[in-house]
Structures are given as C-alpha cells and as structure tokens.
Design a protein that fits this description.
GO terms for molecular function: FMN binding. The chain is an alpha+beta fold. The chain has helices at residues 3-14, 60-67, 99-108, 111-115, and strands at 23-29, 35-41, 50-56, 70-77, 82-94, 145-159, 166-172, 178-183. 19% of the residues lie in helices and 38% in strands. The structure holds flavin mononucleotide (FMN).
Length: 185
C-alpha cells in the first residue's frame, strides 16, 4: 500500500467525527485552460487508488473532465492540520458503462440525496419562483448520474503541526512503484 494511502486512512480515522473532513475541492480546467473549482464529497478509495466522487453528467465538471481528464484535488483536514493535494486522472462512468458500480452508489444515497439528481437540468433558469418538483423514480438510476474515478498519480502532503512544517512528495517511478521524498516546505 502506498505510504500516502496509509496516511490518508489515518487522517480520515482521526477526523471521523467531523463530517466536513469528507469534503474536498476538485479543480478542473476546460479546453482553453480556464480553471474551475468546487467542493465534492469523498465516497471512498478503490484498490487502484481512485478517489471516488458521485456527480451528474449535466454539470460543468463532467464536460471539463471529458475535455481534459487531468485534475487536482485539494483536501484539508482542519482537525489534524494536514493538506493533501492529489494530482489525478479522471475517468467517469454512468450506468451505461458500469451498471453494478453506479447502481451501488445510487442505492447508498438517501432519498434527499437522490432528489438532487431529479430536479431538472442544472443551471437552467428558475424564473417563476415555483418549488422544484422531482421527475423520475428513486428506484431507477438516472442516465445522468455518474461516478468519477479520480486516479491518484502524485501527492503533495503538508502537515502544519510543528515548526518547521512537514512536506512530503509522493510520486510514481516508471515501473508503477510509489516513491516518497521529504522536502523543504
Ligand atoms: C459540501 C458540498 C458537497 C458537495 N458535494 C458534491 C458532490 O459530491 N458531487 C457533486 O457533483 N457536487 C457536489 N457539490 C456541488 C458542487 O460543489 C457544485 O456546486 C456542483 O457540482 C456544480 O459544479 P460544476 O458546475 O462546477 O460541475 C457539493 C457542494 C458542497 C457545498
């Protein structure tokens, strides 16, 4: 197991009582290089070192990741004062590509979570002030519901505890082995 993964497991364990520690920022860029950043919820880490996020194919991030699949995750654990910056390569799957995986994430959502995918097209204007209504069934995985698999290719870890602070870079050698290097922060 890569060293950074052991560290992340520990950070998640130490902050398990803090719901906000499951949120991280995902930065993407479009074809022209314009950056976009937003908060998403961490949904797990696969055996292949993919950070898992659920999303909607009708959002900007999906379009940006289709154009440019390199992205960055920035994750700060306030309780332990640790920052992880993950360079990632994204791969998106819908129920058409990976029905079992995608359905398992859909089924883990509460009804309130599912509703967020059934309110209509994101970013379309709401001019009449009317309440949004749900269209579709909770039993069916919407075609636009997607799982983003963010494969970690590089990690920049910073721990603010102590003086000097501790910074460590983790990267892959040409053979797929993870190497770690402590660096000047
Ligand atoms: C705490 C928090 C958690 C969020 N979690 C997710 C998430 O897991 N997936 C997601 O697509 N959007 C999530 N969002 C909404 C995104 O931040 C963003 O507003 C939305 O996905 C549209 O982004 P885009 O147009 O850049 O793709 C979350 C927002 C907040 C504030």
């Amino acid at each position: 197991m890569p060293q950074w993964r052991q560290g992340l497991t520990k950070s998640l364990h130490k902050t398990r009582s803090v719901p906000e520690s499951r949120y991280f920022q995902l930065a993407t860029a479009d074809e022209e290089g314009t950056p976009y950043c937003r908060t998403v919820v961490y949904r797990g880490l696969t055996e292949d070192n993919d950070l898992v996020v659920i999303s909607d194919t009708r959002t900007g991030k999906y379009a940006q990741l289709c154009e440019q699949n390199k992205a960055q995750v920035c994750w700060y654990f306030a309780k332990t004062r640790e920052q992880y910056r993950f360079s990632v390569t994204a791969h998106s799957v819908t129920t058409a590509h990976a029905p079992v995986l995608v359905r398992s994430h859909w089924e883990r959502l509460s009804d309130a979570g599912k509703k967020q995918f059934l309110w209509g097209e994101p970013t379309t204007p709401r001019n009449d002030g009317a309440a949004l209504s749900v269209t579709g069934s909770f039993d069916e995985v919407p075609a636009h519901f997607c799982v983003l698999l963010l494969n970690v290719t590089k990690v920049d870890y910073l721990n603010l505890r102590g003086s000097p602070q501790y910074r460590e870079l983790h990267y892959l050698d040409g053979q797929g082995n993870w190497l770690s290097q402590s660096v000047v922060p």
